[in-house]
């Protein structure tokens, strides 16, 4: 919805005689005003991520552990050491989507939003510490 409003504003602005340099500034201001520029790229819903994690990931990763490869946990230090790309939501999204080694790909089972939510949950919980 925000993107549609922004596109409409931008199209309307271009119909008027405006200096091209000003259009770029207006587009940036419009994006900021509608929250496009201030939304983090991979901001997932942590609470929803916890529910999805418990339903899809906890069989192997309960409590942030790993029953298949015990050294590759979801603890902060292990994510820093073993996760391709380091400990970030983007890296978790890639791992969950594509799978790796014994971990299956969830890209065909979960939609992008659900995977982003799981990534947000994993990163936040790794920073706070798993129970």
Automatic annotation (TrEMBL):
Its main location: plastid. This is Cytochrome c-553. Keywords: Electron transport, Heme, Iron, Metal-binding, Photosynthesis, Signal, Thylakoid, Transport. Functions as an electron carrier between membrane-bound cytochrome b6-f and photosystem I in oxygenic photosynthesis. GO terms for cellular component: chloroplast thylakoid lumen. GO terms for molecular function: electron transfer activity; heme binding; iron ion binding. GO terms for biological process: photosynthesis. Residues 44-126 form the Cytochrome c domain. InterPro entries: Cyt_c-like_dom, Cyt_c-like_dom_sf, Cyt_C6, Cyt_C_IC. Residues 1-15 form the signal peptide. It is found in: Plastid, Chloroplast thylakoid lumen.
């Amino acid at each position: 919805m925000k993107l549609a409003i922004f596109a409409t504003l931008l199209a309307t602005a271009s119909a008027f005689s405006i200096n091209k340099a000003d259009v770029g500034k207006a587009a940036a201001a419009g994006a900021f005003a509608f929250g496009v520029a201030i939304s983090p790229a991979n901001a997932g819903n942590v609470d929803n991520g916890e529910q999805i994690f418990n339903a899809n990931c906890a069989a192997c990763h309960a409590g942030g552990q790993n029953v298949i490869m015990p050294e590759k946990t979801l603890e902060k230090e292990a994510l820093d050491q073993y996760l391709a790309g380091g400990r970030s939501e983007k890296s978790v999204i890639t791992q969950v989507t594509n799978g790796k080694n014994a971990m299956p790909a969830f890209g065909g089972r979960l939609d992008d939003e659900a995977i982003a939510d799981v990534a947000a949950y994993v990163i936040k919980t790794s920073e706070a510490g798993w129970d």
